[in-house]
Amino acid sequence: MKGLFDALEQKNRPRKTSSAKDFSVSRSGASLTIASSVSSKSASAFAPSSSSSGYHDYHIESKQRARTIVEITRKTLLGLLDNENENENENEFENECTFPSNNKNQKNFQYLSRDELLIGERLATGGFGCILQVHASTLSSSNKYVMKTLIPMSRAASDAKLISAAHQLAKERYFLSNLSHPNIISMYAMSKGGLSVIQETRRLDSYFIIEEYMPILLVDQIQIWRQKQSHHRQYRWNFKKKMNPQVFLEQITCAVQIASALHYLHQERVIFRDVKSANIGISAQRQAKLFDFGLAVQLPKDADLDALQPSLGGSRVGTIRMMATEVLRKQPYNVKADVFSFALLLWEMIILDQRPPEGGCGVYGSRPFLPSHWPFTLKRILERAWADDFQNERPHMSEVLVFLQDLQRQLLSELDARKQKSRK
Description:
Elements (H helix, E strand, L loop, with lengths): L3 H8 L10 E4 L6 E4 L27 H14 L25 H4 L4 E3 L5 E8 L3 E7 L9 E6 L8 H20 L8 E5 L4 H6 L6 E5 L3 E2 H13 L4 E2 L5 E2 L1 H23 L2 E2 L8 E3 L5 E3 L6 E2 L26 H4 L7 H16 L24 H10 L11 H27 L1
Parallel strand pairs: 3-7
Antiparallel strand pairs: 1-2, 4-5, 5-6, 6-8, 7-8, 9-13, 10-11, 12-15, 13-14
Helix pairs in contact: 2-4, 7-9, 7-11, 9-10
């Protein structure tokens, strides 16, 4: 659901004192440790009534309109299905979907009705949906959860808006049902009845998914890194750069996790299409995680990752400031569009106090500034990853991931050497 977490980004902006949340890197470099000040809410903080959280009900005025919304939404989703049959499935359309490696990705989810949920605070509201804290007796009490659902719109909302809202959430539900990776957000439950529940209840919010709670977003973590960098003395490393080595290691470790998730998606023939700091959370389990698959697209299971996808040209999809030049030009593209966006994200993570231009990178070569003290190899991989010639010069995520893992090992070795030297 485009724009949904942009509101959450503002709500969860960290205060000037960053002691409440801290990031550290384990020796293995595989995980990121976060201590959050977010307090655990007991079940008494939730209520079955939507009024407790300022949430209001909205019923679609007629079953005919609800049916129209559901039927058209189903038709817009047919492009997701690789083995779609012509018979309408009255249960969940996700059951008709098959990923290239679907068997290994099958997961068990709980199917709940809205009446079984205790709704808590509304955390974010966007153009097409909202996120609320949620609890259910069947869910583990040791974890925190959020419900992502369709926002109760006014009666003045057009059918097109209602269909778009349902389409975005159904896509996310589809992808999270089939994907399984430690750096992609986990879905634990979903509404019973699939899209049909909207028609049966005439309530948009009867269709939902329940995901793990993200204490903070990457956009917030960047600000924490910035504070730590500004209050930390500058080190000169053996490859002649001035940076806070611990912060730099944390940044690269986080980048490794995001790159790993994108590499996995591309292997599954999925293009994420909206890589940005507001779409990456930091979990309580020490992992950076991609979320918000409303703009993602699945390619055919036998698709050549280097081949252009003509069906994807003709429109701009994603966030303009993070958009690949071929997407800005509305030309056919492939999975390497995500590589371009990831390069801009990595630059934003390390530069700390700047963001890519709102109007997007110049289609004829304008790119963000690369400081001279950054490692040459890092600057080179960024230049290649955001190269305009994506078919010949821009690498795949697999190559970017290998580079980042090598850099991560180098940084860990450097820090170990410094610690050993300080003990002498």
